[in-house]
Amino acid sequence: MEPIIDPVRKPLLKAELSQDRFLLESNRGGNLLYVVDNACAPNVVREIGRLREIAFRSRNSGTGKSCDLDRFDLDPAYHFHQLVLWDPAAEEIMGGYRFVCGDEVLFGEDGQPLIPSAHQFVFSEAFLQDGFRRTIELSRSFVALDFQNVQNSIRGVFALDSLLEGVKTILGRSGGRMENFFGKMGISGSFPEEGKDMILYFLEKHFGGPDARALVRSRQDVPIRERERWERLFTADTFQADYRILKAEMKKTGQFIPPLVNTYMKMSPTMKYFGSAINESFSGDIESAILIRYKDIPACKVDRYCDDILIR
Question: Distance (Å, rounded) from C-alpha 180 to C-alpha 135?
Answer without folding.
Answer: 5
